[in-house]
Design a protein that fits this description.
The chain is α/β, with parallel strands linked by helices and 474 residues long. It has 19 helices and 20 strands. Strand 2 and strand 3 form a beta hairpin. It is globular.
């Protein structure tokens, strides 16, 4: 361990893992939930950071039975001294009040075909209700016994490698300088901080602002091979990547099936390869998106609700046009995405060309916070509204300032505050110089890029300018 890795380990002793290339390769072969992968990685890595790949493989073979084998193994077990089998899988519990029983299902195995075939006793559920009574189910090592046509869930061992304590996370963050904390975040998200310049680090950090702030809409039109899709889709189970064809029904609400779309189910939606996005009804999709991006409201027919997912547009454009102050960067995108009314609803443009293409030196290969642990805590920060109260108290916009520009700057600054200074709980905790450097100035720059594009596209914005802010404690 380097001194910095040891510092991370001491601050997060239960959720620091050794992210070697071997571990990354092994994890890519496992078709498992990301939390389960992290749990397995921890379970089979010793205190010196050495992963026992063979033992992990044997464990998976023993408890991850194929879909066409588990029931046969269960019948065989019934007639053996053992009498049971164990599975490492996801369990969903539900109550059958009409028949006064508790049932369960195993989504991976499409079991049961009939509800009463799978039952679990209340004593088992009560013992682990923190896990088993979650609406989406949970992963665990379960013990199954076959008894007179019923498969009984006899025991459950929860898989929960971490305790997600936001207060502990905040206190741990205090132990690092701002520059170190950026490295902690990058290494936690599987990037090697040593492979980036300071400018590159800060630019890539911007991709994770929507992880901590609700309805933060961003745009990144950058070069190929800069890991955009990976950042926006592979790191968090709360994100959803969309490419190809989009529709109002799949995005917001399907009038036929009466089911909500991905904006109602996830925290951040990314339109990937946005230059190639297609829709059968551009006007319908544009109007639905503009309404949603403005207020979070979803209106389809008689259906009306609100959601808090943000939208990120990511794609590749000609490198010669990657200058928001000189060129219309939206020229190669679908026409309706180049409308000023649509673009104005995005808070910031990320200057992705500063990151450059990825290479092997940029992959994390050492000790860092578990990605799953970090992502879940970042996600929990979305509900911490007091950070915005601090920003509102701290930033005083000039009179007559454009409301959308003010709101965008405040929303971005709030996200930076959550991401880089999670331990701040009041205005009195603010270091003004750090706040200007790491929150306010980049927030203004991000929104200024949007305004520059609007001025190029639509003459209505030619006389608009970015607002000036007074810091109340400066």
């Amino acid at each position: 361990m380097t001194n910095f890795e040891e510092k991370i380990y001491n601050a997060f002793p239960t959720c620091t893992v050794n992210k070697t290339s071997t571990a990354a390769t092994l994890m890519s072969f496992l078709d498992l939930d990301s939390d389960l992968k992290s749990w397995l990685l921890q379970k089979f890595t010793d205190k010196d950071g050495k992963l026992n790949a063979y033992m992990l493989s044997e464990y998976v073979k023993e408890y991850r039975l194929p879909a066409n084998e588990w029931n046969i193994r269960l019948l065989e077990a019934r007639h053996s001294e053992k009498g049971y089998i164990k599975l490492l899988t996801k369990v969903v519990v539900e109550f059958d009040y009409a028949n006064d029983m508790i049932c369960y299902s195993l989504p991976e195995y499409s079991f049961p075909k009939k509800k009463r075939e799978a039952q679990v006793d209340w004593s088992t559920v009560s013992k682990h209700k923190k896990y088993l009574l979650t609406p989406d189910g949970c992963w665990g090592l379960i013990t199954l016994i076959y008894d007179c046509g019923i498969v009984v869930l006899d025991d459950f061992e929860p898989i929960c490698p971490y305790t997600y304590d936001l207060n502990e996370y905040r206190e741990a963050a205090r132990q690092f300088t701002t520059e170190e904390w950026i490295d902690v975040i990058l290494s936690g998200l599987n990037f090697n901080p040593e492979g980036f310049t300071e400018e590159e680090k800060f630019t890539i950090i911007q991709r994770f602002l929507p992880f901590v702030e609700k309805r933060l809409n961003t745009i990144e039109l950058a070069i190929k091979g800069s890991a955009k899709s990976y950042c926006y889709s592979q790191l968090s189970p709360h994100n959803w990547l969309v490419s190809g064809n989009i529709s109002r029904a799949s995005a917001f609400y399907n009038l036929t099936t009466k089911k909500g779309g991905y904006f109602t189910k996830y925290s951040q939606i990314a339109f990937d390869e946005v230059q190639s996005i297609k829709t059968n009804n551009a006007e319908e999709m544009s109007n639905a998106l503009k309404t949603y991006l403005e207020s979070g409201e979803i209106r389809v027919g008689d259906f009306c609700t609100t959601a808090d997912a943000g939208l990120s547009l990511i794609g590749n454009i000609d490198i010669n046009r990657m200058d928001s102050t000189k060129y219309n960067m939206f020229k190669s995108l679908p026409k309706w995405m180049g409308e000023s009314a649509f673009i104005d609803r995005f808070a910031m443009i990320i200057d992705g060309k500063k990151i450059g293409r990825f290479n092997e030196s940029r992959k994390m290969n050492g000790w860092g916070i578990s990605t799953n642990y970090l992502v879940e805590l970042l996600h929990s920060l979305r509900d911490e509204f007091y950070y915005r109260c601090i920003i509102d108290e701290l930033l005083i916009p000039e009179k007559g300032a454009d409301t959308r520009n003010v709101e965008a700057v405040k929303r971005i600054a709030t996200a930076y505050l959550k991401l880089l200074f999670p331990y701040v709980t009041s205005v009195e905790d603010i270091d003004v110089e750090k706040f200007k450097k790491y929150c306010l100035e980049p927030a203004i720059a991000g929104r200024s890029a949007v305004l520059s594009q609007l001025q190029i596209i639509d003459e209505e914005y030619e006389d608009k300018k970015m607002p000036e802010f007074t810091i109340s404690i400066d």
